[in-house]
Design goal:
This protein is of the alpha+beta class. Helix content is 49%, strand content 14%. Helix 8 packs antiparallel against helix 10 and helix 18 packs across helix 26. The radius of gyration is 39 Å and the shape is flat.
């Protein structure tokens, strides 16, 4: 695109003016009134098809990424919301409407079904329910005792029944014996599940009696035994007693009493019999929430809808159906609130990567316009000298770029829509999928506008006034202007404001985009500083380099010190890409470290072996077998007794208990120090010399103990007598730690195992890199096939933390943004070398006429390209290193790393720390890439003939 078309060699007309036409015969004029010159756009595209194809490819990729970004974010946020609702416990993922029943009241099944649909219609959007799992009926709110003597009584306590009439039982259960219940309120019939029938000895035809409010027992005939068709669905899980009985212990600390709890599945026609029992019955309508149609944009409306159920117009409408005593209960609001809080914490961190890659993409597109402008600078200078207006030049250049950028952006948009369709949603458009289309269209349109306007705008600004042909373009001629100083000061103020805001408020405000742009602003400032400072050290090095033998080194440094002023954009692109990569790599490394740390705190070591029931002793030889397993470096047996009662010097203090841990102080202190989990000097737990069976009667001995803060506060510096299964002794707290490897809870006491009287090993803490299969085989070899001991690996615990699409999606997007930034950095390097290629070729050709060899020419071009790359690498690495500590106080990666996982409770925080690999590797890669590209360019230039470059008047 560097040659001027011959058709346009005559003076250019002003904008809007019609060109002169040669006189034609009248007949010919009437037949062909066409233009006398070739169309500008078509001519320019035909003259440089390669440049047009390159611009189209860059716009296509950029539009694809820009359009895919909002769709990808919406997709993983939608999946995160649906995942939160689908994986929530069944009793938390339902909406229940209840109404107490007065004694002797009666409700017809058809009336309840009609009210069920009326209530469903009152639920506000976007709250949707699952009709298949919806259930209604009547149920007892308190258990009713089974009065029949043939029912099992483990400790003499009668069976307690939870009785409920359920709708559509035949659709959710298969009949195993007898028939489905029907009956009437006066002759009630019910069914039981196979598990209940087996545990309680109930058969089809059995009659169960429960207390009545009048004193006479109420008889319920069991007509059938059923088996749930889908026992994991909401219909059965919300009320587990209806599916499976439970052997329960009465809450009496003085006496251990076990009794059975079970469920009776009454028919809808028999439901009214419950008003004659002592079970305090109520009518209920249960609506499981369906998440299939929810989207990320429904999060806030869903929270508002759930809030309106607690006490708003929706509750008033519900009570118009149920009566004035109707109630709505749900825990969905807590589930949705937790999900929205996680999204609000993760989104600003992801926005940092989005701003970084967006800034790099804009700079690279601007560099493309600069490359085209440099190739056509002589042409545009000549047009301006011959009278062309800025408007005419700008419009014609806009036409050139528009016919390339707009179709390429449209193709990028179509590709993004086809590749990122969003999660499957019933009723979603077949072409665009469930992800929103408008944000993607706006993003692709923005890319098209930037790509189309960058060349005409830069051309108009550059040629505001006629310029001299062949004017200098290096730093000698281009001095910093006042406008540039104002821009740099403005960027400095914005960066300072963003950093201060982020350090003070953190990332809690997801709508503050200035905060998310803080790393980009820091990178911009670093690039501005490098542009001003880069020539100085190069010029200082050029002076002593003159004393070296040969002209290659001094000439390369001299040219690098006064390189073209157009090198600002390549430098800015590289610094921004390196800053984004360093910050993003530190974020990903921080997420990995947080998960590793949380898993280690939860497990206590690399692996943990403990009985599935509290206090279960390790079988003989298990510790030795574990030590011999593959990858095990150490195996530390400990004794843990849970629920030890802690006395208090204040009689009014509430009861308190904590685990008591007996350990080998030396090995345990080493483990705590290695894992960074409550490290302490081993000498704090020095033995008293009194322990073992011979010290059973010595309850006056005082054992030094390591305690949690609350336990230490309870003892208040005094010694306390403990009566435990390990013995009776006094303890005195000698050190306080927030956590310890042996227990996961917040409260604990750690003593020397040599000082207890009843030494028993109940758990093993394993260090090293244990192989899970080998470790479990070693445990099974000593424990047999009973499965009484659980083997927990920190690596497996860590894997459970990445259980939310919101986490994994945000992390994947962050990694993709870093990769895209690296790709744009490569493009920036190639564009920079391509832009300076013709001028370097001309220089090399002229120097070769003066005796410069091909080898020296290649060395010259390679050495000239390296200093800017080295400065960019150093500047980007330093900017990334400075960005992390500047912004770290306002960023907590805990929610991104752990979300709502249980390990988040063990981890107090996940601060952002600089990752050395993320700082060094991208910087080294930039230098190597630039050197390689420059070497290839020098090799290719050296192979070409010098005649073309030495033509008189050719400025290429």
């Amino acid at each position: 695109m560097s040659d001027v078309p011959r058709e346009e060699s005559r003076p250019m007309q002003s904008a809007g003016a019609s060109p002169d036409h040669r006189p034609r015969p009248a007949a010919e004029s009437e037949k062909a009134p066409g233009r006398a010159v070739a169309p500008w756009v078509r001519t320019r595209l035909r003259a440089a098809p390669g440049a047009a194809a390159g611009l189209a490819l860059l716009v296509f990729v950029t539009a694809l990424l820009a359009a895919a970004l909002p769709r990808a974010v919406d997709s993983y946020e939608t999946e995160g919301l649906r995942h939160a609702l689908r994986t929530a416990p069944a009793h938390r993922a339902v909406l229940e409407i209840t109404d107490p029943l007065p004694p002797a009241a009666s409700r017809e099944p058809e009336g309840l079904r009609k009210e069920q649909e009326e209530l469903r219609a009152l639920l506000p959007a976007p709250l949707a329910t699952d009709p298949e799992q919806t259930v209604h009926g009547m149920r007892t709110t308190t258990r009713v005792a089974g009065l029949d003597p043939w029912l099992p009584k483990p400790d003499g306590a009668p069976v307690e029944f939870f009785a409920a009439s359920v709708s559509d039982l035949s659709a959710h259960a298969e009949l195993r014996g007898g028939r489905m219940p029907a009956g009437t309120p006066k002759k009630a019939e019910a069914a039981v599940t196979a598990a209940t029938a087996k545990a309680l000895g109930i058969e089809a035809g059995s009659v169960v009696h429960v207390p009545g409010i009048g004193g006479d027992p109420i008889a319920v005939t069991v007509t059938g035994v059923v088996e749930p068709r889908d026992p994991q669905r909401s219909y059965w899980v919300v009320s587990p007693l209806l599916r499976r009985p439970s052997l329960t212990m009465k809450p009496d600390p003085m006496q251990t009493t076990y009794y059975w709890e079970a469920g009776l599945l009454l028919s809808p026609e028999s439901g009214s019999v419950l008003t004659s029992t002592t079970g305090t019955p109520e009518v209920y309508w249960r609506y499981p929430v369906s998440a299939d149609r929810l989207a990320a944009r429904d999060g806030e409306p869903l929270a508002a809808a759930l809030d309106s159920l607690a006490g708003g117009p929706v509750l008033a409408a519900v009570r118009s159906v149920t009566g004035p005593t109707g109630l709505i209960s749900t825990e969905l609001d807590e589930v949705v609130a937790a999900q929205l809080a996680s999204r609000a914490a993760i989104s600003p961190v992801v926005a940092v990567a989005v701003f970084g890659i967006g800034a790099v993409a804009v700079v690279v597109v601007a560099m493309t316009g600069g490359l085209f402008l440099s190739r056509r600078d002589a042409e545009l200078t000549l047009l301006r000298a011959r009278g062309a207006s800025l408007t005419g030049i700008g419009l014609r250049l806009l036409g050139e770029t528009s016919v390339v950028a707009v179709p390429a952006a449209a193709l990028g948009l179509a590709a993004a829509v086809a590749l990122v369709r969003g999660p499957d949603t019933p009723g979603a458009p077949a072409l665009s999928g469930s992800a929103p289309l408008l944000p993607a269209v706006l993003a692709a349109l923005l890319v098209a506008l930037v790509a189309a306007f960058v060349l005409p705008v830069r051309a108009v600004l550059r040629h505001r006034a006629p310029r001299l042909h062949g004017a200098r373009e290096d730093m000698i001629d281009a001095k910093p202007s006042r406008r540039r100083t104002v821009v740099e000061l403005t960027a400095l103020v914005l960066a300072a404001a963003a950093i201060a805001s982020l350090r003070l408020r953190g990332t809690s405000d997801s709508g503050d985009h200035l905060v998310s742009a803080a790393p980009v602003l820091v990178g911009v400032l670093a690039a501005f500083a490098l542009v001003r400072l880069q020539p100085l050290p190069l010029r200082w090095l050029a002076r002593p380099a003159r004393r070296l033998r040969g002209a290659v080194g001094p000439l390369a440094l001299a040219r690098a010190g006064r390189s073209s002023a157009t090198g600002v954009l390549p430098l800015l692109a590289l610094v921004l890409a390196l800053t984004t990569a360093a910050f993003g790599g530190s974020v990903l490394a921080g997420v990995t470290d947080a998960r590793d740390r949380a898993a280690l705190l939860t497990t206590g070591a690399e692996a943990r072996i403990e009985g599935r029931t509290e206090g279960l002793l390790l079988p003989p030889g298990m510790v030795e077998a574990v030590r011999g397993a593959k990858g095990v470096r150490e195996a530390l047996p400990v004794q843990i007794e849970y629920g030890v009662s802690l006395p208090s010097p204040v009689s009014t203090d509430p009861p308190m208990s904590a685990p008591l841990v007996a350990v080998d102080p030396s090995a345990y202190a080493k483990l705590a120090r290695r894992t960074g989990n409550g490290a302490f000097p081993a000498g704090l737990l020095a033995t008293t010399g009194k322990g073992g069976p011979e010290a059973v009667g010595d309850t006056d001995r005082v054992l030094p103990a390591l305690a949690s803060p609350e336990v230490a506060a309870r003892f208040a510096g005094r010694t306390a007598l403990l009566n435990t299964a390990t013995g009776s002794f006094h303890v005195k707290v000698v050190a306080v730690r927030d956590s310890t490897p042996a227990v996961r809870g917040e409260d604990f006491l750690v003593v020397n195992a040599a000082d207890v009287t009843n030494r028993r090993q109940t758990a093993v803490l394993v260090g090293g890199s244990p192989d899970g299969k080998a470790l479990r085989a070693a445990v099974a070899g000593k424990a047999g096939k009973s499965g009484d001991f659980a083997v927990t690996l920190a690596s497996e615990t860590r894997g459970s933390y990445v259980d939310s699409p919101l986490q994994s999606g945000a992390e994947t997007l962050y990694a993709a943004a870093i990769g895209a930034g690296a790709a744009y950095a490569v493009v920036a390097v190639l564009l920079s070398l391509t832009q300076s290629g013709p001028e370097r070729a001309t220089l090399l050709s002229r120097l070769r006429t003066m005796g410069l060899t091909r080898r020296q020419g290649r060395r010259l071009l390679g050495l000239e390209a390296l200093p800017p790359a080295v400065f960019a690498a150093l500047g980007g690495a330093l900017a990334g290193w400075a960005t992390v500590p500047l912004l770290a106080p306002g960023i907590d990666l805990r929610l991104l790393a752990l979300a709502t996982a249980e390990g988040g409770a063990a981890l107090a925080g996940a601060p952002l720390r600089a990752d050395p690999w993320s700082l060094v590797l991208p910087a080294v890669a930039v230098v190597l890439l630039t050197g390689t590209a420059a070497a290839v360019q020098a090799w290719w230039t050296g192979r070409k003939s010098s005649v073309k470059e030495l033509r008189a008047g050719d400025a290429r």
